[in-house]
Design brief:
The chain is of the alpha/beta class and about 300 residues long. Helix content is about 40%, strand content about 25%.
Length: about 300
């Protein structure tokens, strides 16, 4: 049994098509078919069954795939660990983060880290709160910047980095646009532009409104800070966003006003798997964030 056979098997299983798998592997389809056939002969079982032009895993194939994916993941991880041991500066950091941190924070910290470690590579993965936690648990990423920071969790651990204030944002022609501060209850009759279900900023804003004595009237929903900011600037409603998501990116911008009552904040933290030691280069990045970047920007 050869490593190449296992790699070809996993690719065909994922693509469910010999030709598509061969294209991604940059080899001839006949080579893929031959390796799979040899693997099946050695195992004494059929791994795939043909369904039209596609192929599907047999029950034995599904079981085999589960085991082989684990083996290949461990092998890849071992190779990376050896390379990083020889030279951490040639390593790769797999980093997850929510969309709201991708506007300014992630580019800023990565750029600053690479000033001292220019050869370190990054592989990014964006997602919502729950998906980021799952990505960490399932070893899809080494570290994840996340908001809110989950202080107690059975499978991940980490550090609280900062607590950030949220500001009210209003259309430029809004009657309250000239105010320096406002109370959240002053917006109770307004339509709110909020993140869609599953995004961590949504419950923070809803909870703040409830604390101020009203349930927000949600007029529009979006999935990116640029969308929220743009809709508010265009007069579609009001919202609350953290300051780092209010970087000017175009001519159409909302008005930012401090919320005096209640104080609305979000926490941002860094999480990792609780039962596993970080790769050397990921540990370097973690220490940079906790000991240098955020300590200097508090």
């Amino acid at each position: 049994m050869e490593l190449r056979q296992l790699q070809y098997f996993v690719k065909v299983a994922r693509k469910e098509h010999y030709t598509k798998a061969a294209e991604e592997l940059h080899v001839a389809q006949s080579a893929v078919s031959r390796q799979i056939h040899q693997l099946e002969e050695e195992l004494g079982i059929s791994l795939f069954m043909h369904v039209g032009r596609n192929v599907h895993l047999t029950p034995a194939g599904k079981l085999f795939l589960t085991r082989i994916e684990t083996i290949l993941t461990d092998l890849e991880k071992s190779v990376l660990e050896i390379r990083e041991l020889l030279d951490p500066e040639l390593g790769e950091i797999r980093l997850g983060f929510p969309h709201s941190l991708g506007v300014n924070l992630v580019p800023s910290v990565v750029a600053q880290f690479r000033q001292e470690h220019p050869n370190v590579k990054f592989k990014f993965r964006q997602g919502k709160f729950n998906s980021l936690i799952n990505d960490v648990i399932n070893n899809e990423v080494d570290l994840a910047l996340i908001s809110p920071f989950p202080e107690k969790h059975g499978h991940v651990t980490g550090e609280l980095l900062i607590t950030e204030e949220l500001f009210a944002i209003l259309p430029p022609n809004h009657i309250l646009a000239e105010y320096q501060t406002l109370r959240l209850e002053q917006l109770k009759e307004e339509a709110f532009v909020l993140f869609s279900e599953g995004y961590s900023l949504r419950p923070i804003v809803v909870e703040a409104c409830m604390k101020a004595g009203f349930k927000p009237n949600i007029g529009f929903e979006g999935e990116e800070t640029d969308t929220i900011r743009g809709l508010v600037a265009a007069g579609m409603g009001v919202s609350l966003l953290p300051e780092m998501a209010l970087v000017d990116t175009g001519p159409l911008q909302p008005i930012k006003i401090k919320v005096a009552e209640p104080l609305v904040t979000r926490t941002i933290g860094l999480i990792r798997r609780s039962d596993e030691k970080l790769p050397i280069v990921a540990e370097m990045f973690r220490r940079f964030l906790t000991d240098e970047y955020f300590s200097a920007n508090k």
